[in-house]
Amino acid sequence: MQKSTHNIWTKPFLMALSNNFFVFLVFYSLLTVLPVYVIDELHVSEAKAGLVTTMFLISAIIVRPFSGKIIDALGKKKTLMISVFFFGASSFFYFVISDFNLLIALRFFHGIWFSIASTVLVAIAADMIPEHRKGEGLGYFAMSMNLAVVAGPFLSLALVQFIPYSSLFLLLASMMVVAFILTFGIQVSSAAPSEPKAARRITAKDLIEVRAMPIAFVGFLTAFAYSGIMSFISVYAKSVGLFESVSLFFVVFAAAMLLSRPYTGRLFDQKGPDSVIYPSLIIFAIGLAVLSITQSTFVLLTAGALIGLGYGALLPSYQTMAIQSAPRERTSHSTATFFIFYDLGIAVGSVVLGMISGGLGFTSLYLLSGAVVVVTLFVYRYHSVLAGKKRRQASEALEL
């Protein structure tokens, strides 16, 4: 596929970005509304309700290491169409299933296709973006996921106040029909020739991109800290009498992220990742500290703005670094490796921080989350210094 050496906003890129938005919109909508649905409609306990999230993440984490191998075997376009088709088809079953055990099985199956679809979409987008604008382009692409973080919960929680759960599920499934149609317009660069069948035995190299692991671990720590917002912000706001303001928190979060994204993406490309990641981690930590002392709408929204500015720039920066850590033909493996660690961070963080909130309260939860971000800064510093040393050694070797 021929592409401009400068333009990011091509028609295929916009289609891939829209596809990514729909996939994550459905993911975050279901993530938010299903626990409430199974408690209210299927009459299960709160402990069991957590399984609808856990089973989805378990299957996604299990499949992530194999995503790169699957993409290599089938090609990016075929993998995209198959994964989006089955992710969308799975979405229709929420409309008809009324048994909790069947719902848990569906969540496991749904997580498989989410894992593959989200991995291949990033790999496709990375191939479309000119190398010298990689940070900016992937930042815009990641913004589709960040917008879904806001739009999904806002949409699902607002609609269920006026329509039945079944109608909401049908609406979400219909969105995936649109996403599948969009896959036909996404052009994908030609893949390298397939390797001989004898060489197709799965090895560790097929599952994990080792060069992406350092920044993926930084992503794990960041996701751990962010999981406290994903999982508990609504409960926390309700406990301090600010439940009506939670939707505004996400609106401010999104606005701060959108306003900063073009600037931080260009800064990443022009000045390097350190110029974005260090200040973003500091702002994210401050935002969590402010959130921990929230007693008014103003303070809650201030925290939302700070967290949007900080966290909003981190995920696309990490993804770009993971992709740039390995050759282009390993893009899908680098992406899969990063998301394995990110998914684990969300899953582990939700459990650990949930235990802390039950024993010590939400103030301690968000203070600990902020402390984890501070630790992340030092871990990233170590990674950055080590990476710089390796680059200098490689440069000196070339000069010799």
TrEMBL record:
The chain crosses the membrane at residues 12-37, 49-67, 79-97, 103-126, 138-163, 169-192, 213-236, 242-264, 276-293, 299-318, 339-358, 364-382. Residues 13-387 form the Major facilitator superfamily (MFS) profile domain. The keyword Transmembrane applies. InterPro entries: MFS, MFS_dom, MFS_Exporter, MFS_trans_sf. Pfam families: MFS_1. The keyword RNA-binding does not apply. It is a multi-pass membrane protein. It comes from the Bacteria. Gene3D superfamilies: MFS general substrate transporter like domains. GO terms for molecular function: transmembrane transporter activity. It is found in: Cell membrane. Keywords: Membrane, Transmembrane, Transmembrane helix, Transport. This is Predicted arabinose efflux permease, MFS family. The lineage of its organism: Bacteria, Bacillati, Bacillota, Bacilli, Bacillales.
